[in-house]
Description:
By secondary structure, the protein is of the alpha/beta class. It contains eleven helices and eleven strands.
Amino acid sequence: MEDTAIQKYTFKDFQSDQEVRWCPGCDDYVILRSMLKALPEMNVKREDVVFISGIGCSSRFPYYVNSYGMHSIHGRAPGIATGVKLANPNLSVWVITGDGDSMAIGGNHFIHMLRRNINLNVVLFNNEIYGLTKGQFSPTSLLGQKTKSSPYGNTQPPFQPGELAIGAQARFFARIGGNNPKDMSDLFVQAEKFKGTSLIEVLQNCVIFNDGCYTHYTDKEVKEDKQIFLEHGKPMIFGKNMDKGLMLNGLKLKVVTIGEEGITKEDLLIHDAKESDPTLHQMLIRSTYPLATGIIRSVDELSFEDREMQLTEQVRAKSPFKKVDDLLFSGETYEVK
Length: 337
């Protein structure tokens, strides 16, 4: 963003006048409010914020934020957002997408956006179902899951968004429960600060077509014992009593209890989100107990725009043509009178 004084915004400054049209009880409301709380903390002019979405329940998001935005076509938000960012690198560009929009029809755009490391922020609403079209299985639906399009059970293994992202060389990946607005807002702020493509997967409950898909992780009664919130440079510790942690047992993560078998807090793994080798990050993403949330990976690397600009400057420095006129008037020319 431009290095100029930014006026102080509030939640209401980013709140649009449009009626929010999601089902009552949907986690999308939580995501929207978390974003509206985060935007004033990003030190970005409101007119420099752009939300671009594809198709799906989540894709109504641009209507509900008082900024620039586009409700685009199915799966193509990353391509459109790339064009917007390259045309004006000063903009804060957000891609809003769902599990079907991003990993089915939009799968190719999704992986190449991550591979290129364009300076975009991506919020992936993962409810493991097609909600807008009334309950068909999606690329993240579970094996055996009964849906409108798999009445006897889904036979296709699901994508794990984090694994797919790191396989596509994602430099920033975070995950958060859809009922955790405080940490979600902070993750949005951290994503905006990151120089490159940041991907935040939100485990979003669909109350109509896939209700309870994450309750075994996100319910208040269990989340402290079933989730681990990772912070860079801090021990991998979790539990209601903060007495459990993670260690390595060969090539696998192992849950241990502090105080048992002589294990202390100092024995636990320290989270290193900035480690370029993704091996441990992949282990954390695949872990089902505990479920890893927070910023799992955040590796600094040149963004796509920076690489493009560097190449442009290198070519320009070596070229005899500094502007279009130089090229037009080069070689044999003549004047018509």
